[in-house]
Design brief:
The protein is 38% helix and 24% strand. The chain contains six helices and ten strands; from the N terminus they run αββββααββββααββα. The strands form two sheets. A five-stranded antiparallel beta sheet has the order 8-1-2-9-10. InterPro entries: Ntn_hydrolases_N, Proteasome_alpha-type, Proteasome_asu_bac, Proteasome_sua/b. Pathway: Protein degradation; proteasomal Pup-dependent pathway.
């Protein structure tokens, strides 16, 4: 009788984390940045149908990197959760914090009990009536959650791009300013000897949570409007 193959819990968790991180790093980064009238999302994505940034509820948006089929299932589950909670109680009871808590439970359970972790990283954001009321939560593959302020970058070269965004971002920046900052970061060279890439508007997926809109704050930006903002 052969002896069962033993792997220590520490090594098993490390292997799962390495596997998930490698899968996430292969995807293109998503930049989320606060501006004076809301929260902006930008990523390099030529597809007009397979979105990485989506609306969840009236003032809540969802952004993701990693495996599309996995984060799309999480997005659909989030929409159902929000709709059910808003219908059962009140629309004001649907919050990014509650949604982030639900996602952490799912991600954490899959990471610890399933043979393969989810290769995803998420941002759940809610725009407040004022800038102080904005909420941005970053969720990782193992169910960890962080309350971010100002900006967040995930996927791909997140650490490098995060440094670029963090050094240039200031409170009160306008929408054109934060979009230009995000696109500069996305097109920045991977090494000192590289050249800055000019990413055309048609290759970008951009959306905002606009606090000035009366109810549904989410809006996609594309075409001439996005081109004007990037030039502006």
């Amino acid at each position: 009788m052969s002896m069962p193959f033993y792997v220590s819990p520490e090594q098993l968790m490390k292997d799962r984390a390495d596997y998930a991180r490698k899968g996430i790093a292969r995807g293109r980064s998503v930049v989320v940045v606060q501006y004076d009238e809301g929260i902006a999302f930008a990523t390099e994505n030529a597809s007009r149908a397979l979105h990485k940034v989506s609306e969840i509820y009236d003032r809540i948006a969802f952004a993701a990197v990693g495996k599309y089929n996995e984060f799309e299932n999480l997005r659909v589950a989030g929409v159902r959760y929000a709709d059910l909670r808003g219908y059962s109680y009140d629309r004001e009871d649907v919050t990014a914090r509650a949604l982030a808590n639900a996602y952490t439970q799912t991600l954490g359970t899959v990471f610890t009990t399933e043979s393969k972790p989810l290769e995803v990283e998420l941002v759940v954001a809610e725009v407040g009536r004022t800038a102080e009321g904005d909420q941005i939560y970053r969720l990782t593959y193992d169910g960890s959650v962080a309350d971010e302020h100002g900006w967040v970058v995930m996927g791909g070269q997140a650490e490098r791009l995060g440094t670029l965004v963090g050094d240039a971002w200031r409170p009160g920046m306008t929408l054109p300013q934060v979009l230009q900052l995000a696109v500069r970061a996305l097109g920045s060279p991977a090494d000192d000897g590289g050249e800055q890439r000019a990413i055309p508007a048609a290759q970008l997926e951009v959306a905002v949570l606009d606090r000035t809109r009366p109810r549904r704050a989410f809006r996609r930006l594309a075409g001439p409007l996005l081109e004007d903002l990037l030039e502006g």
